[in-house]
Amino acid sequence: MEPYAISGILLLSLGALLLAHLSIVRMRRYQKRLEHSEERLRLSLWGSGDELWDWNIRQGNLYRSSSWQNPVELKPSSQDSPPNRQQIHPDDLDRVTDALSKHLSQETPYFEATYRILSDDQQWIWVLDRGKVVSYDQHNQASRMTGTLKNIQHIKLAEERLQLFAQCLESISDAVVICDTAFRILEVNPAFSRITGKSREQVLAQQFELSLYPSRYMRDIKLTLAQSGNWAGEVQEQKADGQIYFAELNFNVVRDEQGQIQQYVAVFSDITERKTREEQLSRLANSDTLTGLPNRTLFLSQLKQLVEKQKHHSLLMFDLDNFKKINDSLGHQLGDELLCKLTERLSLFPRSKGQLYRLGGDEFAIQLENTNDIHTITSLAKELLKQINMPFYINQHELAISCSIGIVLCPEDGQDPQSLLRNADTAMYHAKSEGGNRYLFFNDSMNKQAVKRLQIENLIRHGLKEDFFTVYYQPKMDIHTGKLVGMEALVRFITPKRGIISPGTFIPVAEETGQIVEIGAIVLKKACQDVKNWIDQELFHGRVAVNLSAKQFMLPYLCEQIDDILQQTELPSYHLELEITEGTVMQSPTIAIDTMKKLRARGVHLAMDDFGTGYSSLAYLKQFPLNTLKIDKAFIDDMNTARGRNMVDTIVTIAHNLSLTVVAEGVEEKQQLLQLKQLRCEVIQGYYYSKPLSADDFTQFLRQQQPQKKSATVEQSALRSAASAADS
């Protein structure tokens, strides 16, 4: 072979080798690029959180590669469609199958479905499955399909929350307004239209404003929002139909991740009804329901304001003289009408207009601001007396009334509302005690008396705690035989340091403070205990009379209290008589009759004390289930005159006509005894026979009554028979 031929062959071989080498290098480079591409694809899928799947439809193989699930190759049966059928939630399976079938039959360009699959930890999670057929066989049937599976659990949860918030926003009763940074309205909820009467379309892109307020009001709101991020307050606004409503408005700032303001959210509710109710409640709380005048609550509030402002002012407090007698004799309804008529008259009185208050009952007050002038105050007080003294004509009754006025000056007579009110009340009390129909300025001597009254009140409280109250007994004697038939229990207040405190001193205070209720219960229990001891010793077989105060008698649990005391002391009820005054039963006759019937049903006897000094009606008197009528000492003392004897005779006749026993109290002279015997009075009590005695002294008195023991036994049997007959 020729040398050049060999050279040519060598060159061709070398070229072939070079080409082969270049081809191998190129192949390696391509392989490397492919590997890099696959790596980028794998990393991209890992970074996106998507899963890549490849489904060989003909072979029935499914390959999945995922960053949130381990790569897995499933080999479902050829009938399974979709291939991951066993992992799909039963509620989603039909929907996924339908979407896949449509794509495989070329009805849709790609397959897409959201559904729940069972994760490795056996939890249902939401996924977004997207895929596409990538090859078909010779029969144009899908043979291979690839796609991605994305975990959208967090997106689904966010959607659910957004849907929940949207539903709440739709159904919430409060109006919600979303504004941009220029306070233009971006969105409103249905409640906004319901409250304002303006549709969503009417307000979108409109400026949020409060039409009833000046522009500076909104500027202040914006400034507050910029500084603190929220604003809250009550505002008034106008509806589309012009109606005014009240709203409780709350503004809040919505910021982005950088802290920049993105939107403003306003939430408001219609509080018109609430404001109306509050106004009504305020009016009720601060107004007297009967007269419509400002009441005690508002009076004290405004008095406090005047004191805090350190303004000179004066206060006139007044109540009607003997108003209780009008209520007792003519009824509470007429008394209420009188108060209303009085209010009408004083409201027309120019100098009291806007300054008149009703503090309660028949008690009123007038505040004079910015004046301590004595002449001005005196002129007003005189004019007030004149106005009240003018007769009132109510229900065919002509009523002439008067009042007592107490006056205080601020700050001279007190530097706080409580002391001013207390001192005004003290001055009024003294005006009343001097006969009424007058005015008095407060002074130090009045204060001393008020302090003394307070000392008595504290002494009573201490006496109740230390058991300083005891019971004395005054005998009741048969006027014809001179024998003991009973006794009256009288309270005595005996202190270690001050000795005996007069009943006239402590009883009025106890009645005012309500302490009389506790005192009355003590007297009743001690009297029942003493009488039970005397009965057990066969020294006494009559009744003990115990006084009931007005406050005691009106107790709702009075009957039960008496039952308990009788049970504790084991005293039979027919040995107890309760004395009730005219004024007490006439405060509320209907209730009084009901209570008295309950007491009579228990076997307790009832007596009306101080008869003739009150305003009892004969029509009511015949309805009262009484056993005894007691004639007041004032009538007994007046029997030295013909008029006085005739009065006592009339009372005795009335009592006998009502089948009542008559007891005359305060008998001190034999002449009175003889006169009462002529007038057919049955029982007397008084100093003629005995003064009130302590329990020990009364025991000795009872022993002196014992010579005729047999007669006493007969008397006891007769007493019990009479009690049984009366109760039946």
UniProtKB/TrEMBL annotation:
<keyword id="KW-1133">Transmembrane helix</keyword>
<dbReference type="Pfam" id="PF00990">
    <property type="entry name" value="GGDEF"/>
</dbReference>
<feature type="domain" description="PAC">
    <location>
        <begin position="231"/>
        <end position="283"/>
    </location>
</feature>
<dbReference type="InterPro" id="IPR052155">
    <property type="entry name" value="Biofilm_reg_signaling"/>
</dbReference>
<dbReference type="InterPro" id="IPR000160">
    <property type="entry name" value="GGDEF_dom"/>
</dbReference>
<feature type="domain" description="GGDEF">
    <location>
        <begin position="311"/>
        <end position="444"/>
    </location>
</feature>
<dbReference type="Pfam" id="PF08447">
    <property type="entry name" value="PAS_3"/>
</dbReference>
<dbReference type="Pfam" id="PF13426">
    <property type="entry name" value="PAS_9"/>
</dbReference>
<protein>
    <submittedName>
        <fullName>EAL domain-containing protein</fullName>
    </submittedName>
</protein>
<keyword id="KW-0472">Membrane</keyword>
<dbReference type="InterPro" id="IPR035919">
    <property type="entry name" value="EAL_sf"/>
</dbReference>
<dbReference type="InterPro" id="IPR001610">
    <property type="entry name" value="PAC"/>
</dbReference>
<dbReference type="InterPro" id="IPR035965">
    <property type="entry name" value="PAS-like_dom_sf"/>
</dbReference>
<feature type="transmembrane region" description="Helical">
    <location>
        <begin position="6"/>
        <end position="25"/>
    </location>
</feature>
<dbReference type="InterPro" id="IPR043128">
    <property type="entry name" value="Rev_trsase/Diguanyl_cyclase"/>
</dbReference>
<dbReference type="InterPro" id="IPR000014">
    <property type="entry name" value="PAS"/>
</dbReference>
<feature type="domain" description="EAL">
    <location>
        <begin position="453"/>
        <end position="706"/>
    </location>
</feature>
<feature type="domain" description="PAS">
    <location>
        <begin position="161"/>
        <end position="213"/>
    </location>
</feature>
<dbReference type="InterPro" id="IPR029787">
    <property type="entry name" value="Nucleotide_cyclase"/>
</dbReference>
<dbReference type="InterPro" id="IPR000700">
    <property type="entry name" value="PAS-assoc_C"/>
</dbReference>
<keyword id="KW-0812">Transmembrane</keyword>
<dbReference type="InterPro" id="IPR013655">
    <property type="entry name" value="PAS_fold_3"/>
</dbReference>
<dbReference type="InterPro" id="IPR001633">
    <property type="entry name" value="EAL_dom"/>
</dbReference>
<dbReference type="Pfam" id="PF00563">
    <property type="entry name" value="EAL"/>
</dbReference>
